């Protein structure tokens, strides 16, 4: 990301310090794109998007608590906690009415944010994420999400890294990037983080909560996404909400790394529909 001028910032919380990166090159009238990576990934997951929009949008990307540079961080957070810290960061940086771009777990954080701060967001782009509303899920799925730690720990670390990288992406670039991010963890740290993330997700999916998306939404899913029942959930999400589902040909769970040009094009079109004017100049390489 040599051509992206990002400034690293920190938010200190009682549970640890959150690292995030911000760029304001485009000026205050440009769109704010907030990039939220999935579980065990960090801000590098969006390097092709950060390159594409460099100098043309105001951008913010974080390493979620307990991920990447946001360590050490106490593994006790909920999705509402993540949404609250994100809100504090966006308020601090003056990110007015941003577009939340959430991949997988980042999409869940976005929905938790929208439930708590429904008037703050201009749009929500979901990349290989799923709805949080309880009505989409079966009991056994939620039970399994709460009991994954022993399964992860039973798998040899080298095998787990191979499965993690190949299961998330279909391209050499996407797999190598995921493997690089996984290499930052030791096995137990990685397993505990993954297990806690799934348990936090299950804890947010409860009958007494509804997750209405009060802003325009963009649904993106890789045609070869192998993560759980992501494709089934996305079909149901699109059908229930009436929001078109954009399938990314040949892409896996990390569709934005496998087919960045296709995803970037959709994100740009989405931003143009929400902001006027949206962008100046030509896109950067990426």
Automatic annotation (TrEMBL):
Q: Which SUPFAM superfamilies match?
A: alpha/beta-Hydrolases
UniProt keyword list: Hydrolase
Question: What InterPro entries would the database entry show?
Answer: AB_hydrolase_1, AB_hydrolase_fold, AB_hydrolase_sf
UniProt-listed Pfam families: Abhydrolase_6 (PF12697)
Superkingdom classification of source: Bacteria
One GO MF term on file is: hydrolase activity
Q: Give residue ranges for domain AB hydrolase-1.
A: 33-264
**What is the protein name stated in its UniProt record?**
Alpha/beta hydrolase
């Amino acid at each position: 990301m040599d051509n992206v001028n990002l400034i690293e910032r920190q938010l200190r919380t009682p549970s640890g310090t959150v690292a995030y990166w911000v760029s304001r090159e485009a000026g205050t009238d440009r769109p704010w794109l907030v990039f939220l990576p999935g579980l065990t990934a960090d801000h590098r997951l969006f390097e092709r998007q950060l390159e594409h929009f460099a100098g043309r949008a105001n951008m913010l990307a974080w390493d979620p608590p307990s991920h990447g540079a946001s360590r050490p961080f106490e593994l006790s957070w909920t999705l509402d906690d993540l949404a609250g810290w994100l809100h504090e960061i966006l308020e601090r940086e003056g990110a007015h009415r941003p577009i939340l771009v959430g991949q997988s777990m980042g999409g869940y954080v976005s929905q938790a944010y929208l439930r708590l701060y429904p008037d703050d967001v201009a749009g929500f782009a979901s990349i290989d994420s799923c709805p949080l509303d309880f009505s989409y899920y079966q009991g056994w799925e939620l039970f399994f999400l709460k009991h994954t730690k022993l399964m992860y720990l039973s798998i040899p670390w080298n095998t787990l890294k191979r499965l993690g990288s190949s299961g998330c992406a279909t391209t050499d670039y996407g797999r190598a990037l995921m493997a690089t991010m996984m290499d930052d963890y030791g096995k137990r740290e990685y397993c505990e983080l993954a297990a806690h993330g799934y348990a936090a997700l299950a804890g947010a999916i409860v009958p007494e909560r509804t997750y209405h998306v009060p802003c325009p939404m963009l649904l993106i899913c890789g045609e070869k996404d192998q993560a759980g029942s992501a494709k089934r959930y996305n079909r149901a999400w699109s059908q229930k909400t009436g929001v078109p589902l954009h399938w990314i040909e040949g892409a896996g769970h990390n569709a934005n790394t496998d087919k960045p040009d296709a995803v970037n094009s959709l994100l740009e079109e989405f931003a143009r529909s929400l902001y006027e004017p949206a962008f100046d100049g030509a896109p950067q390489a990426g």
